[in-house]
Amino acid sequence: MLSSRGWMLVALSLLAMALAAGCAGTPERKVVPPPTPPPGCIWYDVKAGDTLYSLGRRYGVPVSRLMELNALASPQALKAGQRLAVPVSESPAPAPGESPGSARPHPFPTPSPSALHKGKPDHPFWWPAEGKLVRRFGQEVGGLPEPGIGIAAPAGTEVCAVAAGTVLSCTEAMRSGKAGWGKVVVIRHTNGTVSWYGNLAEIVVKKDQKVQKGQRIGTMGLNAAGATELALRFFRDERPVDPLSYLP
Hints:
By secondary structure, this protein is α+β, with helices and mostly antiparallel strands. It has helices spanning 4-25, 52-59, 63-69, 113-117; strands spanning 41-45, 83-87, 132-135, 140-141, 144-145, 149-152, 158-160, 165-171, 183-189, 193-203, 210-211, 216-220, 229-236, 239-241.
């Protein structure tokens, strides 16, 4: 019969054998390489404040292309930390010393003055953007009269001030779901008229900033129905008026 010391030695021996067997059966940890992006693309890690519009502008890629590559249901389906495939082959490469996150030229150039003033450079007001008139003042929308007009154009099209004035407000919050007007800029002009620009994807002016007629104030984004459209309103004595009666 084994003594207490003998049983202890047996137990320690069995424990050592079990540990050795366990270590021998542990598979070797393999380092999994990160997935490669689609051909002609790079990975971009989304940061707080990024939008598909700002990324499309930065890399010169249409929003629709970014949505297609990354299987996004809507332009708002973007979260900080998300990894996006961005087609660098469709845009100019970053300049030397420029990081991939640096601002890039916009794929849609600022409209020429002639496109804004429609051949009337001395007119008090210019159009805010080139595009197609899709809604008129007073038109019934959702059972209510439209208080402004709608101008449709490609996503990211530049939006300009209709006249010189001072920026009254800039609403930076994007819409929640399909409610609200997204980003909005409001400008008071010297003649007492106030212009209101809704459905913006990006704002490049600040509150109390002085702007000139035809100066870029932002870029065109989506309306509540998911179509690219600038909502433009004019106010006189705090009452909505038809913008078409002011524009050339």
